[in-house]
Amino acid sequence: DVKVTQSSRYLVKRTGEKVFLECVQDMDHENMFWYRQDPGLGLRLIYFSYDVKMKEKGDIPEGYSVSREKKERFSLILESASTNQTSMYLCASSLETGALGQYFGPGTRLTVT
Amino acid sequence: AQSVTQLDSQVPVFEEAPVELRCNYSSSVSVYLFWYVQYPNQGLQLLLKYLSGSTLVKGINGFEAEFNKSQTSFHLRKPSVHISDTAEYFCAVTRAAGNKLTFGGGTRVLVKP
């Protein structure tokens, strides 16, 4: 069975802290994605990666960076967390072609105080 | 670039009644279309997808959707809902053979007994 896991379900951090969100997939997928989900806005793409060490900015990359050192792992980094980054963060993966859709992890609800 | 509009942010419906969730998209190129469901405190799960061919697509849990190219719509339907269908539903689009999804704002379905 396909599986995407995220390191934390809930996270509380203080303003200015550096935050790491980890995502692991066991499907040998080429593509991995980070989204944030906010009420009424749906999912918005932060970054995606199409191969190890390769990344591309999504629609809202400001304030975020990513790292993909291994095919199965994709990390989202908030260099200096701010309160407007309080959100639900979802990781997803897919094969090289998007025709089969994306597989999502359970999400990390991040609160920045 | 593509965009997706889900016309209803919330849809209350009684158990065993039919439901229709509306989705319109805009794109200048051929697209793939998807519907995802998010149950409370979970990630997104693929319900169904349209890639090509028959415009009526059947998915899991008794859902179906119809692709209408002239109206650029991809509405989701279920003839008889259950309490367990209470969830948020997202319509998404990608250009054909692409791998980045653009999501609508989501529709919350509340099934009442």
Write up this protein:
The complex is a heterodimer of chains A (113) and B (113). Chain A is mainly β. In chain A, 0% of the residues lie in helices and 57% in strands. Chain A has strands at residues 4-6, 10-13, 19-25, 31-38, 42-51, 54-57, 64-70, 73-78, 87-94, 103-104, 108-112. In chain A, the strands form 2 sheets. In chain A, strands 2, 4, 5, 6, 9, 10 and 11 form a 7-stranded mixed sheet that branches. Chain A has a 4-stranded antiparallel sheet with strand order 1-3-8-7, with no helix packed on it. In chain A, a hairpin with an 8-residue loop joins strand 9 and strand 10 (103-104). The radius of gyration of chain A is 13 Å and the shape is globular. With 113 residues, chain B is mainly β. Chain B has no helices and 12 strands. In chain B, the strands form 3 sheets. In chain B, strands 2, 5, 6, 10, 11 and 12 form a 6-stranded mixed sheet that branches. Chain B has a 4-stranded antiparallel sheet with strand order 3-9-8-7, with no helix packed on it. A two-stranded antiparallel ribbon of chain B has the order 1-4. Chain B is globular, with a radius of gyration of 13 Å. The model of chain B has no long low-confidence stretch (mean pLDDT 93). Classes of the chains: A mainly beta (113), B mainly beta (113). The interface between A and B is medium-sized, with 28 and 26 residues.
